[in-house]
Amino acid sequence: MLGLKLATDPRWVNIVESNIEEILTDHAWCEQKAASNAISIVTYNSELEELVTEMLVIAREELEHLQMVHDVIKKRGLTLGRERKDHYVNELFKFMKKDGSRRDALCDRLLFSAMIEARSCERFKVLSENIKDEELAKFYRDLMISEAGHYTTFLGFARKYQDNIDIDKRWKEWIEYEGSIITNYGKSETVHG
């Protein structure tokens, strides 16, 4: 369904299990950034009523996920650490087209967002199937389903608002680019790391 070029090695979960506090902190900040991204899309495209409505739903869900992760952190007696840079997302951001019309920029921002959601969904699936902690396995299985919904929403809106862009062609370019950079990740206890 996701069409990713490279699957996450399940052994990544061994790295995650070595520092649960780090993955949870990183995950919490990923949810915060996802909510902020949805709000940014609203800010720059306020005239698109259907898009605004759906982005507000996603922003609210992402904040709910942040709350859920924070609750897990507190329940385990851990601490929400400082915000982390997400080098994977920063590399994806470089691939976003900066020229063209506002509509073209919107479509590429939606594809960028879909790409992040697709990889997050895939990582949550790997966690849910391989982590020994049963509570976290269920937690990540539930979140995987939500991320898949966000992925399809972003991709659907990119198709809806395409103007001069062949979205299927551009999505394939995103898939190829993500496949070329993801080989540098999967070596740390972060969602995309």
UniProtKB/TrEMBL annotation:
Q: Which CDD domains match?
A: MiaE
Q: Give this protein's Gene Ontology molecular function annotations.
A: tRNA 2-(methylsulfanyl)-N(6)-isopentenyladenosine(37) hydroxylase activity
Pfam families in the record: MiaE
InterPro entries registered for this protein in UniProt: Ferritin-like, Ferritin-like_SF, tRNA-Hydrxlase_MiaE
Please indicate which superkingdom the organism of origin belongs to: Bacteria
Task: List the GO biological process terms.
Answer: tRNA modification
The protein, known as: tRNA-(Ms[2]io[6]A)-hydroxylase
- Species of the source: Flavobacterium cutihirudinis
